[in-house]
Design goal:
By secondary structure, the protein is α/β, with parallel strands linked by helices. Helices cover 26% and strands 27% of the residues. The strands form five sheets. Strands 1, 2, 14, 15, 16, 19 and 20 form a seven-stranded mixed beta sheet that branches. Strands 11-12-13-17-18-21 form a six-stranded mixed beta sheet, with helices on both faces. A hairpin with a 6-residue loop joins strand 11 and strand 12. Helix 4 packs across helix 6. The protein starts with 5 loop residues before the first helix and ends in a 10-residue tail after the last helix.
């Protein structure tokens, strides 16, 4: 998706807004985005517990609290989730964490880069949540007007105290399924408000992770400028489209901007790095059982064009896999600030109630076996924090173009 077309696509993020909040995005750099690997299902029976251990103390505490606590008691689900969170916290790893069912659904959507939605933003006002439909998408086609107050979603009452994530989970669903909204509409002339019931068929909404355009006001030729925000299931195809279109438009060198990219899927990081490399190690994974796996590059798509990668303290996990591989192979110059420093891999286990458990299962090293956790990547060309790194990145990629051509730039008189 080119940057010039970005505004309409940003709106199409629909009910997700940018307030994804909990689940995946609520662990921004406190957790770092996980090097996400969807784990295969496992059967763990109570008989697998360590010898001599039992749940007796747990049930003792449960019963004592049930009997003696004065006040409103949490239900069984809240207690169970609290117990899981406490157990996970005992492992003392910020990247091993538990996600409840609702944010887990949003997390899956974000990593997929698509979801079934209605094509409307939701905005909190003094009166409650207002709908802002996107023209031409299902909500608008079904009759939702800008400023309609959302009252109900499929018989679930919407209150001002609910979070955007709670509402997003209600509004989203399988593509081609129907969701029923009750809205209150107040006429612009201040007349009497009316309540309307609208049935809307959900459609696929895409959340692009790659944007691109040409930087044409440069010294020689054109620079393809690519912004990559998250490693999703769609990122590889988006990156291929970006490179193809930019090359067709005359790009001869590239700037890959991964500032603020918190990471995402390991497989996507490997595939993105592979687009820029023709051989060699992408990263080394050291697993919990002591074994190692080496991820290697194959024939890439854009292996010769000069490349600069912009990073900052928000570039983490999968973004560091790509930046570290390109830096170690001398394929790209890193410009910007030191990266976040998250070099661990998490398995995502989906539990029986659609909640999930993220478990640190491995750590990764760059091709030169540099550990990233707690260290981050040092840029080749550091930029003062808060300053714009793009002008420096342009200068570096221009110099690389000249060096690759084996020529010395000369001044030319205008005609």
């Amino acid at each position: 998706m080119s940057i010039r077309n970005l505004p309409i696509y940003l709106v199409i993020l629909s009910v997700i807004g940018l307030a994804f909040g909990v689940g995946y995005i609520s662990y921004p750099l406190m957790h770092g985005a996980p090097e996400a690997v969807i784990a295969p299902p496992v059967d763990i029976l109570p008989s697998d517990q360590p010898a001599g251990q039992s749940m007796g103390a747990y049930w003792d505490a449960w019963q004592i609290l049930d009997r003696d606590f004065f006040g409103e008691k949490p239900d069984a689900t809240a207690r169970t989730y609290g117990a899981i969170r406490g157990m996970v916290a005992s492992f003392n790893d910020p990247y091993t964490y538990f996600v409840e069912p609702q944010p887990r659904e949003l997390e899956r959507d974000e990593l997929a880069g698509r979801f079934g939605g209605i094509g409307a933003n939701i905005e909190l006002s003094d009166d409650g949540y207002l709908l802002r439909p996107v023209p031409g998408l299902p909500a608008a086609e079904a009759g939702v007007l800008d400023g309609d107050l959302l009252l109900m979603v499929d018989n679930h009452a919407i209150t001002r105290t609910m979070s955007l994530d709670e509402i997003a989970t209600l509004v989203r669903g399988p593509i081609d399924s129907v969701v029923t909204l009750v809205v209150r509409r107040t006429p612009a002339d201040g007349g009497r408000a009316e309540e309307l019931t609208l049935s809307i068929t959900r459609a696929e909404m895409q959340t692009p992770s790659v944007e691109w355009r040409l930087l044409e006001d440069t010294d020689s030729g054109t620079v393809g400028y690519i912004i990559h925000t998250l490693f999703t299931e769609r990122s590889v195809e988006e990156m291929k489209q970006a490179l193809t279109e930019l090359q067709e438009q005359g790009a001869t060198r590239y700037i890959l901007d991964m500032r603020g990219n918190r990471g995402g899927l390991v497989s996507t990081a490997v595939a993105i790095a592979d687009l820029w490399l023709d051989e060699g190690v992408i990263f080394v994974e050291q697993k919990a059982d002591g074994s190692e796996t080496v991820q290697e590059a194959t024939a890439g798509m854009m292996v010769d064009a000069p490349l600069v990668v912009i990073v900052d303290g928000g570039s983490a996990s999968a973004a560091e896999i790509v930046a570290g591989a390109l830096q170690d192979h001398g394929r790209a110059t890193l410009v910007g600030e030191k990266t976040f420093g998250k070099g661990s891999v998490q398995l995502i286990h989906e539990l029986s109630d659609q909640s999930s458990l993220h478990v640190t299962n491995a750590q990764w090293l760059t091709p030169n076996r540099r550990p990233i956790s707690g260290n981050g990547l040092e840029p080749d060309v550091p930029i003062v924090a808060g300053s714009d790194p793009l002008p420096e990145a342009i200068a570096v990629v221009e110099a690389a173009t000249v060096a690759q051509a084996g020529t010395t730039p000369t001044a030319q008189a205008g005609n």
